[in-house]
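Quick start: what a row looks like.
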Amino acid sequence: VQLVESGGDLVQPGGSLRLSCAASGFTFNNYDMNWYRQVPGKERELVATITTTGGYAWYAESVKGRYTISRDNAKNTVYLQMNSLKPEDTAVYYCYAGLGSARYWGQGTQVTVSS
């Protein structure tokens, strides 16, 4: 099983990034997919969730209206479009899939928002 994130970078405030998470080794279509983020010294925070078909998405209040989660089940990939980025969005972003006792995390990708 693998979840491989990519797309993290250094970006100026107000900028945009698109994160990708490519999944393999499990039945991607059966899993709701999630993006979390974590800064040093703080707990990992759930940022966005998307259901198996992409028909419903949930967002943390701190990112609502700025982030969009989407998925392509044909490519086994989930995305996080991040717009109007703020310095407080700086974190390592993780992809997560969980179903029953199965728990899968990616290795994370660093997003830094700074001028």
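That is the whole record. The longest strand covers residues 91-99. The chain is about 0% helix and 50% strand.
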